[in-house]
Amino acid sequence: MAAFRSETELENKVWLFRVFFLAIALFFALLCLYGIGNYWQWGHDGYMGASMSQAARNSLRFGVVGQAWQYFGFEPPKPADFYTNHPLLLNFHLIVAHTLFGFSEWAARLVPLSYTLALFVLLWFVVRHFYGQLTALFAVSIYALIPQDVIFAHLVSHEQGGMFWCLAALGVHLYWHERQRATRRAMLSFACLCMAMQYDWPGYYLAFFIWLHQLGLGFALWKKHRQWPFAWSLALVLAVLVWINAFVFFGWIYHLKGGLGEMIASFRMRSQPLDWKHYLESQWQWSKDLRGWLPHVLLTSWLLFRLLRLAKGFVSRDMIPFSFLLIQLVQSTLFKQAGSLHAYWTLYLNIAIAVGGAELLYALSLAAQRWFRFPGERSVLLLVVGLFVFQAPFTVRQLRWAVSTGHASYVEPYPEQFDKAMWFKELGKRYGRHTHYFIDRSLGDVRIELRYYLDAPNEDVHRFILPVAKKQSPGKNVLLIDKQAVRNKKVLDSF
After folding, report:
1. Measured between alpha carbons, how far is 232 from 244 in angstroms, rounded to an integer?
2. Which string of DSSP letters, residue by residue, matches 66-92?
């Protein structure tokens, strides 16, 4: 079989690459589904899932827009009960999911899972269009083999939807750039950007990058024709859209809270100065656990590869990996405190690793064919198989470790709380919503992962000190206590 020199020589092998893509997609989907029906347990997955599901539950129950994510009262939540540190689009998705499928763990996780799988497919189409079929095959292979992607595939958070809409906006923007008078494509890109901005903060970063790109394109055309370029008109429209998105969200917060003081305080807290040495060391340790050394080698080598090729100029498709690389740098630098707590904070970087690594592997495959006369497409497919043979066992092993520890909660020993979760779920079913729970400290740290199952007003009481005046509720008052932790059993006689 002759060595191939370009993508066009492989058109007659399209079916073979599609078979490989479907096999990789099936592998990725099966890993992403792992643990989708689990209880909310201590850790990233349980905390975010229970909190955001409770917010959707309150939105449906009281007809409110905001995210009252740790509220269990009978009356509509007050302004102080709403979480306003993130845009609202995830909450709207969860409202739809719970309306259609009821309140269950898998229904909540279905939202991020759907975006994760859609992002995988979108990555294939975007890279195939701008880089070619071989590079696309490399890209989805790398992405599927990064443990962090499957560990947090159905984490109920803003990252998955934000990444999808960012890649969609960028892909459509670059597609417009190929035919710059295609106004509909530009408007579609802006619509995707609006979705990205209402889903997660990186949508605003990407809007700025695209705005700069349009200004640069317009300046090049202006130098050539000395006329107002269409790209500058689009840049003005984009600037207005960004301000509208920001005004709508922050205006809603101002109306709800009576000001932006809480939002500003939260920003200062999440961006507060940290010990950079400790911060970088922890990020590196997490990255080794959640990616392995191969993605790091690919990213570093690709960056060196691109630096060596800077003399040939910057092409528009380079925006794909570089935009996600810059998004991650901004996100991790701007919100250091959040990054030091959340092991999923660096998910955006994986798009840069997948696309950049794929571009590097494709260049290496071409070089290997020229130098060593490797046979055509077989070398590429063998390289993909080699990636899976080497990385897949590590990915599966890390996934099993992460799911068993609250999705990489990094707490030793891990407080599983599985028995407590089943008990709290049974209590919620037995006593119903019209109950007031008093949770004794003897039960330990009872967080939202467990309180979610009660779905009723609850409060903590100090160990062995009972409330003097029991609050009035439409139903029963229930004290939850660990009898084994009570040394003086006579203290229980008063119940």
Report:
1. 18
2. SB-TT---SSPPPGGG-B-SS-SHHHH
Which tokens in the block code for residue 29?
């989907």
Residues in a beta bridge with 328 = none
The predicted-structure confidence for 125-180, as pLDDT tens digits, reads as follows 999 999 998 899 999 999 999 999 999 999 999 999 999 999 999 999 998 887 76
Q: 456 burial class (0-12, 13-18, 19+ CB within 10 angstroms)?
A: buried
Q: Looking at residue 2, what is its pLDDT?
A: 39
Q: Do 473 and 457 contact (CB within 8 A), yes or no?
A: yes
Cβ 414 vs Cβ 406: under 8 Å: yes
* Sequence-separated (6 or more) residues with CB below 8 Å from residue 202: 162, 163, 166, 196, 327, 330, 331, 348
With a cut of 70, list the residues of the chain below it in pLDDT.
1-13, 180-182, 273, 311, 372-378, 463-474, 486-495
Give the integer Cα–Cα distance in Å for 330 and 320: 16
Sheet of 435-440: strand order equals 458-461, 435-440, 476-480
Which residues fall within 8 angstroms of residue 4, CB to CB, at 6 or more apart? 10, 369, 376, 377
* Radius of gyration, CA atoms only, the chain: 26
Tokens of 466: 């009972």
Residue 333 CB coordination number (10 Å): 11
Give CA–CA dist 415/444, Å, rounded: 10
Distance from C-alpha of 245 to C-alpha of 241, rounded to nearest angstrom: 6
Please spell the DSSP secondary structure of 150-169, one letter per residue: HHTTT-SSSHHHHHHHHHHH
Structure tokens, 61: 């129950």
- Which residue do the tokens 């996780």 mark? 109
Distances (CA, A) of 179 to 18, 70, 182, 321, 476: 28, 49, 6, 21, 67
pTM above 0.90, yes or no: yes
Cβ atoms 58, 95 nearer than 8 A: no
Do residues 176 and 182 touch, judged by C-beta distance below 8 A?
yes
User: What does the pLDDT look like over 55-81, one tens digit per residue?
Assistant: 999 999 999 999 999 999 999 999 999
**Per-residue pLDDT reduced to its tens digit, 270-279:** 777 678 888 8
What is the C-alpha separation between 356 and 341, in angstroms, rounded?
27
- The CA-CA-CA angle for residues 255, 261, 263, to 5°, reads 80
Cα angle value 334/44/54 (rounded, 5°): 100
Q: How far apart are CA 119 and CA 223, in angstroms?
A: 38
Question: CA nearest 148: which of 160, 136, 137, 158?
Answer: 160
Closest-CA residue to 99 (of 59, 43, 48, 39): 59
Given its phi and psi angles, is residue 313 left (phi above 0), alpha (psi -120 to 50 degrees) or beta?
A: left
